Amino acid sequence: MHSITRLARTTSAHLARTATLEVVSDGTLTDGEFTLRHGCAIYRPANVRRAIRCDRVESLLIEVSGGPRSTVADTTARAWSISLLQELEHRDPGWELIVDGLVLVGLGRLTRIAELAAHRPAWLDEAVALARQQQPLAEIARRIGRHPSHVAREFHRHEGVTIGEFVRRCRLELAARALRRGEQSIGEVALDAGFCDQSHFTNAFRRVFGLTPGKWK
User: Which residues contact 9 (CB under 8 A, 6 or more apart)?
Assistant: First the structure.
């Protein structure tokens, strides 16, 4: 199993002797050009000093072998990273194997981001921001002045999911945070997340996070 350390960061510098994968579990961490929040991940090769800005951030630091040749981050919380945090918190039977698999999925995802970075369209960040605001494909294409099929193809290539799936995951990430706070019932969270009934919400939540909303809560 990979070596995993829980951190409560308050320092402004970081130098790891080995390559590391860090997943933020709470707070906001800024590392160079990257801003990372809950579920976001960053890979750093060995012996690279980085200026890190944060007040207090809780995260997982995982020593890894292999990965991209340069620092790269995934600033959109993914199902693999959210599931990784949950597996380490609950430690249900088989969690060690699942964690190892999720770490490899994350490294694969970050390697793909690094390889595609040179070909990332300049307009894609705006498309991602609009999708995060729950805008549909047609509106995103209109706002950035591109054909919808071209936007859909490039979005899927670089972000790894369709725009529709990305929008659903953003809604589910907000729902997951609301469930963690415990201030609302599951039904109320489902309605706030835009699901017409709790059954539909439960099925969608389980597909992304691997747990029912009740078990997550």
Answer: 27, 29, 52, 54, 56, 57, 58, 59
Q: What is the dihedral of CA 205, 207, 209, 213, to 10 degrees?
A: 30
Half-sphere exposure in the Cβ direction for 187 (13 Å, CA)? 0
Helix axes 124-132, 148-159, angle to 10 degrees: 90
Please state, in angstroms and as integers, the Cα–Cα distance from residue 184 to each residue in 24, 116, 177, 190, following that order. Answer: 24, 40, 11, 10
Two structure tokens written together for 191: 């309605």
Please enumerate in sequence order all residues whose Cβ is within 8 A of that of 68, keeping only pairs 6 or more positions apart, or say none. 43, 45, 110, 111, 114, 115
φ, ψ for residue 50, nearest 5 deg: -125, 145
**The model's pTM:** 0.71
Which 3-state string (H, E, C) describes 81-101?
A: HHHHHHHHHHCCCCHHHHHHH
| DSSP label at residue 136 | -
Q: Are 8 and 57 in contact (CB under 8 A)?
A: yes
Distance separating alpha carbons of residues 73 and 32, to the nearest angstrom: 11
| pLDDT tens by residue, 166-196 | 888 888 888 888 888 888 999 999 998 888 8
What does the buried/exposed string (b/e) look like for 16-47 if buried means 16 or more CB atoms within 10 Å of the residue's CB? beebbbbbbbebebebeebebbbbbbbbbbee
pLDDT at 144 over 60: yes
pLDDT by residue (tens digit) across 78-88? 878 888 988 88
13: DSSP letter:
E
